[in-house]
Design goal:
The complex is a heterodimer of chains A (703) and B (112). Chain A is an alpha+beta fold and 703 residues long. With 112 residues, chain B is α/β, with parallel strands linked by helices. Classes of the chains: A alpha+beta (703), B alpha/beta (112).
């Protein structure tokens, strides 16, 4: 142990805490949905218990004290003394949140109790009707040893697994046979079986259909617990099965623990678990520590298949891959200039190089991709807090939480998503009374879902509330001068008014939305990620906010264009189509304004050259191309460009980090010829030149 | 007088009931089971043999298994049943127990 610094262990502890907290939240989610089994409660208990054990070793007293209280209450639930009622589960979830806070505080070395903990403790005490025994002798926590061993185990080779197996009569009735199961186990590693025959009676007392034998199996294997469980997959309901890892081989001196050693631990513990009356907390700990690594918990085996890597290293790698893509583009341009015969080895080689670079790029991007699950779990907490603050009852349903998105995107999405979730609870859902009157269940539902759709990630936040009150929205927008009273707005257009800066539909600002942040901020945050937000709402049925995001922030598909002698890149996601000016139906409006008729609407024309101060808008548009771009479902614009050069993947180089923010420019990239090109931000260009959503709408009226 | 019972070839779970019945009918005297033809033995049948061995011991009668097949021994090994628990390799003359490691060739040792 001395070879590893305590900092490493500390880091491991916090990393493990994250996984344990996740497992705990999963367990609570299952319990709330009513789909849990006894094992779910065990898993939650184990998670809290392990956090407590580790925290004890590092002397995080506040964390240990709270975890102990929490664990005692969970134990009551486990032993059946406590019903998993709605109130209880809500309290437990809040306790889970507090536990997470305490873990963060410990990590930031801001130890000591946090506000709210005392109240939660009191609630827990009144729930279980007693004060838990104070934990004695903190430093003597025996689970600590186990946990640290487990950390080592992750990197070790084959381990010894101890399996307790006791078949029930049903197992034989369904024509299963222990001998065959054991033979399957033998395929996974070296198996030693020992039958406990102590309960086999005399022949005259024997019911030949009942099995009185209990097996203690020792298996040396490199396989994960999941693999072992899979052997028992079809008999799991017809037997008692306890699988525990006994640590890696070679931890001490390369010798495997003998079977006798293995057996001396587990049968006792398991017998204890079986025969003892509902154990008080302290006894339960002992039982639990012996079977800690058993059934159901986060699969231990998975840990061996992953490594933890510093994010910086991944980012460096991504940067290098970006450079590789640029160099490759440069090389291909130089080769093109050589004007080699069409079938030549250089081009062939370059082609395969391109393919390889593409694969490397995809692979590296995949490293950064993370499931949205942890973010969704954070949102569960936001929902709970928002529900408490507004006095509403809300159920959060998450879908597609294994959808993977770039880590940076996830991190930067938390704020806007938090806002939208709060918005859904605060403004979207009606009060319980109103819901009752409308014939809906008092408990509102917010669905948070994620999915991959055509190269983008879609995140939807839906509520089953009253839908957007468009009349009211319109009135507010008019009173704030955001829209003219005469304007004839479609439903979608009214919905989009919510995104206008300075709009807040609730007359009374509640505690939740009191942060002075409107949906417009949430939307612009999503837009800086290259994403878009749209709304769909049905009166009486609810509202859905949809966020569409790029998979990564490192590369994007762009259209390389030329304007006034400059090369620029327009994100392909913003482009709807390109139009030839010769055939397009262009009308003049006022002194200088021009619009083009496109798909039954008049779209304002904007010259990119003038926007960037490169030239004055050309009077004659012949020879130019119009790029139809859209920012959200209602705002369109036609950009004048001189020529379209290429459509290609470009590596995004942030301007902000290297220079500073430039209006109308999202980022920069390096082209194949080594020149730098600006990636334009159509959203901000349209916002500035065409004005807010209104302009486009007004033009429609003009028809 | 000495009785012999030839064990069925397949002693799986469903066979345990009839095996127990046959054995019960033979109680009261020394018994030798001929296990040479067994090509599969499962947990429940082995349990019957363990129970029978205990019964015969309680009845103070000799109970032994003769010339077990490889499959029989493999079943014992796989299920971790010690040979002495089923009267494997018990010497009728000595009356005592001679533990035989499962997997060794018993045919020689116990042949009469």
């Amino acid at each position: 142990m001395s070879s590893v610094s305590s900092d490493d262990f500390r880091d491991s502890f916090f990393q493990e805490c994250e996984e344990l907290l996740e497992a705990m939240q999963d367990g609570f989610a299952l319990m709330v949905s009513g789909a849990h089994e006894a094992e779910t409660v065990h898993a939650v208990f184990r998670a809290v218990h392990s956090i407590k054990g580790g925290a004890g070793a590092f002397g995080f007293d506040a964390l240990v004290a709270f975890a102990h209280h929490f664990e005692t209450a969970l134990d009551k639930l486990r032993s059946g003394d406590l019903e998993a009622g709605e109130e209880t589960l809500m309290l437990f979830q809040r306790c889970g949140d507090h536990l997470a806070d305490l873990v963060s505080a410990a990590r930031d070395e801001a130890g000591g109790p946090l506000p709210g903990g005392e109240e939660l403790r009191e609630e827990l005490d009144s729930l279980i009707g007693e004060q838990p025994q104070e934990e004695e002798g903190l430093p003597a926590f025996e689970p600590v040893v186990l946990d640290l061993d487990a950390m080592g185990e992750a990197q070790e080779g084959p381990g010894s697994i101890s399996i307790l197996f006791e078949p029930e009569a049903d197992l034989f009735r369904s024509n299963n046979e222990p001998a065959l199961l054991f033979r399957s186990l033998e395929r996974l590693g070296r198996l030693e079986a020992r039958a406990d025959l102590s309960r086999v009676p005399l022949l005259e007392d024997l019911d030949p259909e009942q099995c009185h034998i209990q097996w203690q199996l020792g298996l040396e294997t490199e396989e994960s617990e999941g693999e072992i469980r899979a052997v028992f997959e079809f008999v799991e309901d017809a037997c008692r099965l306890e699988i525990s890892s006994l640590g890696a081989a070679g931890l001490e001196d390369g010798d495997l623990p003998s079977l006798e050693d293995l057996i001396s631990v587990s049968p006792e513990a398991s017998l204890l678990a079986e025969t003892a009356p509902p154990p008080p907390a302290q006894t339960a700990e002992k039982t639990e520590s012996a079977t800690e690594k058993t059934s159901g918990g986060p699969p231990r085996g998975a840990a061996t298949a992953t490594i933890r890597v510093d994010l910086d290293r991944v980012d460096k790698l991504i940067n290098l891959v970006g450079e590789l893509v640029i160099k490759e583009a440069m090389l291909s341009q130089s080769i093109a200039q050589l004007e080699l015969p069409s079938e030549n080895e250089v081009s062939g080689g370059l082609e395969s190089l391109k393919q390889l670079a593409g694969e490397i790029q995809e692979g590296v991007m995949a490293i950064r991709a993370q499931p949205v699950k942890p973010m969704f779990q954070r949102m569960a907490r936001i929902v709970r807090e928002a529900a408490t603050a507004t006095g509403k009852r809300v159920r959060l349903v998450t879908q597609g939480e294994h959808t993977e998105v770039d880590k940076t995107v996830i991190e930067r999405l938390i704020d806007p998503l938090t806002h939208m979730i709060r918005n859904a609870v605060d403004h979207g859902l009606e009060s319980p009374e109103a819901r009752r009157e409308a014939g809906k269940p008092e408990e509102g539902t917010v669905i948070l879902s994620a999915a991959h759709r055509s190269g983008r990630v879609m995140i939807d936040i839906s509520d089953d509330g009253g839908g957007i009150n468009r009349e009211k929205v319109r009135k507010i927008a008019e009173s704030k001068g955001l829209v003219s009273p005469e304007a004839d707005l479609s439903a979608v257009e009214i919905d989009n008014l919510l995104f206008l800066p300075g709009f807040s539909s609730k007359e009374q600002v509640s505690e939740l939305s009191g942060r002075g942040v409107g949906l417009d901020v949430a939307r612009s945050e999503v837009q800086t990620l290259g994403g878009r937000v749209s709304i769909a709402s049905t009166p009486g049925e609810g509202t859905t906010f949809s966020i569409s995001l790029p998979l990564t922030l490192a590369v994007m598909e762009g259209m390389v264009i030329e304007v006034a002698g400059q090369t620029m890149v327009v994100p392909i996601t913003a482009i709807q189509e390109s139009l030839q000016t010769r055939t397009a139906e262009i009308h003049s409006i006022g002194a200088t304004g021009r619009v083009v008729a496109n798909r039954e609407r008049l779209v304002p024309i904007v010259d990119l050259g003038e926007t960037f101060g490169l030239r004055r808008t050309p009077q004659n548009l012949d020879g130019h191309v119009l790029l139809m771009v859209e920012t959200d479902s209602t705002t369109h614009c036609a950009l004048i460009v001189d020529a379209i050069q290429d459509q290609r993947q470009v590596v995004i180089k942030s301007l902000e980090t290297n220079y500073g923010h430039v209006h109308g420019v999202a980022a920069a990239t390096i082209l194949g010829d080594g020149r730098i090109a600006l990636i334009i931000d159509p959203d901000s260009i349209i916002r500035d030149t065409v004005g807010a959503a209104g302009a486009d709408l007004q033009l429609q009226l003009a028809r | 007088m000495d009785q012999n019972l030839k064990l069925s070839t397949r002693l799986d779970g469903p066979a345990a009931g009839s095996l127990a019945g046959e054995l019960t009918a033979l109680r009261g005297g020394p018994l030798t089971l001929e296990a040479g033809g067994v090509d599969f033995i499962g947990a429940l049948s082995l349990q019957v043999l363990v129970a029978a061995h205990r019964q015969w011991k309680a009845d103070e009668q000799l109970f032994r298994i003769d010339a077990p097949s490889d499959a029989f021994l493999e079943g014992c090994r796989l299920l971790g049943i010690p040979s002495e628990e089923i009267g494997l390799g018990e010497d009728p003359d000595a009356g005592g127990e001679t533990a035989v490691e499962p997997g060794t060739d018993l045919a020689v040792e116990v042949s009469e």
